[in-house]
Amino acid sequence: MFDFKEILSVTLILFSVIDIIGSIPIIIDLRKKVGHVQSEKATIVSAIIMFVFLFLGESLLRLFGIDIGSFAIAGAIIMFLLGMEMVLGIQLFKSEEGDLSSSSIVPIAFPLIAGAGTMTTLLSLASIYQTANILVGITVNLVFVYIVLKTSGWLERKIGQNGFNILRKVFGIILLAIAIKIFKTSWTL
Hints:
Strand content: under 5%
Helix content: over 70%
Order of helices and strands: HHHHHHH
Distance between the termini: 23 Å
Radius of gyration: 16 Å
C-alpha cells in the first residue's frame, strides 16, 4: 500500500511547490505587522484545503468539463513558472493584500501554503501516485510547515538571507525538473 519512493517524491514535490522556506521573509514581515501568526490555525486550514481538493478536486473539474490530464498539464506549467521564479529571482505570481486580522488564513494558509500551485499539484500528483502516498506526503509537509511557522524568527537568525536564497534556487531547479516530468507523463492521459 505505502511506497517509500512515491512518498518521498510526493513530499519533495509538495515541499518545492509550497516553498515554506522561501515564504519565511513574508511570514516574518507579517509577524512584524500583526505581532504574531497563529501557526496551528494556518496549518489546520491548509490541511483542510489540501485534503478537500485532493478528494473533491476531480469532481469539481468534471463539473466544468475539464479532464485530469489537461489539469495536470496546466499544473505542470504553473509549477514550471514557480520554479522559474525561484531560480531567476523574479515574481510572476503576486499575492493579494489581505486583512491583517486574518493573516494566519490569508495570505499564509491561502495562498502561500495551499494556493493554486499546491491545489494544481495535488491533482497532478493524483494522476500519477497512489492516494495513500499523497496523504502521507501532505501530512509530512504540514508538519514541516507548522515547525517552520513556529520557528521562523529563529530560522531567520540562523540561516540568514543568503542561505534562504541558495535553498530557494536549489528547490526551484528541482521543481522545474518535476514539472517537466509531470508534463511528459500527463501528456498521454
